[in-house]
Structures are given as C-alpha cells and as structure tokens.
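ok here's the first one, seq then struct tokens
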Amino acid sequence: QVQLVESGGGLVQAGGSLRLSCAASGRTFSRNAMGWFRQASGKEREFVAAISWSGVTSGYADSVKGRFTISRNNAKNTVYLQMNILKPEDTAVYYCAARNTAVVVTTTRDYAYWGQGTQVTVSS
C-alpha cells in the first residue's frame, strides 16, 4: 500500500520559516516527479512546487518563488519543502503528491498519489 505522509506543519509568525517533509512508503519514488500543493479554506487546491526524480529540475508557483525551496532525498524516499519569509496568505493545508512518471508538471490531475496534508498557519 502506497502512503505519503507529510509532517512539519504548524503555527508560525509572518516572516518565519517551516520545513515540511513527505515520507513515502509502499514503493520507491526515486524515478518519479513529486510535488507540493496547498489548499486554503474555501479555495481550490493549487500548485506550489515540483521536482524531477533527479532533483535537477524544479518548478515553483510565482507566489512562492524566491521564498520556498523543494528538495528530495531518494535514499530516504522523502521530499522536502523549505518555506522561508512566510506570509499570512501562505496559510493552507499543504499536500505532498507523486506522479507515475519522471516529468515535472504543475497540474493537480496529473499526480497519482497524495498525502493527507499538513496544516500551515501563518499569523500576522
């Protein structure tokens, strides 16, 4: 059974940092693109960042460029999201997702596996 388990969420003041982790089990995703998405209350789920299987290629939503960094450790089957200079508008449930292919994409429907999400709340 494939599982993606996010951790690292919490409450932080504006300007602060958090590091999210996503640990995969049940199969290896070392040859698959992985991504982070978020969903704020009352809004649709949106793309945040994605990374290729090798870690060489990554992409970011414009709203987080320069503040968030996605990375991965294939030996640990884990992907990370370092979030710096957090803003109240970053408040959302953050989801980890994995594709069945190696290509980095930004669309929700192209990710086959999803975690349960971790809440990130940024206070002003």
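and now the second one, same deal
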Amino acid sequence: QVHLGESGGGSVQAGGSLRLSCVASGYTFSRYCLGWFRQAPGKEREGVATIYNTDAVRSYADSVKGRFSISRDNAKNTLYLQMNNLKPEDTGMYYCAAARDYGACLEAPTYNYWGQGTQVTVSS
C-alpha cells in the first residue's frame, strides 16, 4: 500500500521561507512524475512544481518560478519543496503526489497517489 506523508507546513510572514518534505512508503521513486500541488479555499487544486524522470526535468507553475525549488532524495524516498520569498497568495493546503504511469506532470489527473496535505499560511 502506498503512503505519502507531508510535513513542514506552517505560518510565516511574507518574504519568509518554508521547506516541505514528503516521505513515500510502498512506492519507489522511478521514472514517473512526482509533484507538489496546492489548493486554496474555494479554488481548484493546481500544480506547483514537478520533477520527472531525471533530476534535470523540473516544471513549475509561472506563479512560483524563481521562488520555489523541487528536489528529491531517492535513497530516502523523499520529495522536497523549498519555498522562498513566500507571498500571501501562496497560502493553501500543499499536497505531494506520485504517478505510476506517464502523463503531464503539472496535471492532477496524471497522479495516482496523494498525501493528506500540509497547510501553508502566509501573512502580509
């Protein structure tokens, strides 16, 4: 059984930083998409950052480019999201996700497994 467990969320002021972690069990990091998504109240879940196949293939939402960085540690089966210069509009529940087949990495339907989420709140 696959389990994804996020941690690292919290409350910060604008301009601050957070590092999210997602530990996977029952799932081996391989060639398929791994990603971070977020959902704000009243809004749809959106892809924030993804990593695919090799570490050289990363994708980011336009709204976070230059501020967020996704990485992974295959030995620890852990996915990370470093978030710098946070803005109030980054507030939301952040989820990590993993796919078991090929697909568009920034699209939620690509993913088969989801964590429970970790809350990020950025105040102005």
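notes on #2: The chain has a mean pLDDT of 94. The two ends are 40 Å apart (CA to CA).
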